[in-house]
Design goal:
TusA-like; about 210 residues; Hypothetical Protein Ychn, Chain: A; Selenium metabolism protein YedF; Translation Initiation Factor IF3; elongated
Length: about 210
């Protein structure tokens, strides 16, 4: 290894392409972030096919203080994002475990938002997918009323909830609610809690987000 590399030099030595054409929000940004995280230094070119995706990827680049360039060709946008990293001759350290915040999320139904139920089903999947991509993760996620339907077999977000649980996030479903919907035996992630445990968890949290 050269002396200049030991002292630290800026290098751009990798190029990655993310084809996000046809993907809905927030996937273009998430895939771009994953590609950037894998780079020590280099360029990620994200290709998108609409103005909203372009602006969202640009906002991500700005938020991380990455330099970027946007080109347009054949009806598509090509966003070049540059990452530089000081290289050191140092021992590789183990990856730390994901951090948990003091936030608790209370899920009161099996869709996201008010209005069209079909849209709400799409949004709830997008919400939990995005939640797995952002740190720090919440300390606990509490499910009540029809929200408990998201923690049982066949849930569209089961994979995401299991991933969150594996990082230390507490997943707790209301036992009364599971009984009401007759689905307690189908519980596939997390544990069963009573109202006391749910209220206690919310009281101990610095902030509770209800969706």
């Amino acid at each position: 290894m050269s002396d200049c590399r030991k002292k630290g030099v800026f290098e751009l030595n990798q190029k990655t392409e993310v084809d996000a054409r046809g993907l809905t929000c927030p996937k273009p940004v998430i895939q771009t972030k994953k590609a950037m995280d894998q780079l020590t230094s280099g360029i990620v070119t994200t290709i998108v096919d609409n103005d909203t995706a372009r602006e969202n990827v640009i906002k991500y680049a700005k938020s991380q203080n990455f330099r970027y360039e946007v080109k347009q060709a054949d009806g598509f946008y090509y966003i070049d994002i540059y990452k530089t990293e000081v290289m050191f001759d140092a021992e590789i350290m183990p990856q730390p475990k994901p951090k948990l915040s003091e936030i608790v999320i209370l899920v009161g139904k099996n869709t996201f938002g008010e209005g069209d139920e079909t849209l709400g089903e799409v949004l709830i999947k997008g919400y939990f997918y995005t939640l797995t991509e952002l740190e720090p993760y919440p300390k606990s996620i509490l499910f009540v009323n029809s929200g408990v339907q998201l923690t049982v077999e066949g849930s569209p977000v089961l994979e995401h909830l299991r991933l969150l649980e594996s990082t230390g996030v507490e997943i707790l479903s209301c036992g009364t609610c599971l009984d009401y919907y007759k689905i307690k035996e189908k519980l596939a992630v997390g544990g069963v809690g009573n109202m006391y445990a749910i209220v206690e968890t919310m009281h101990k949290a610095k902030n509770t987000i209800r969706i």
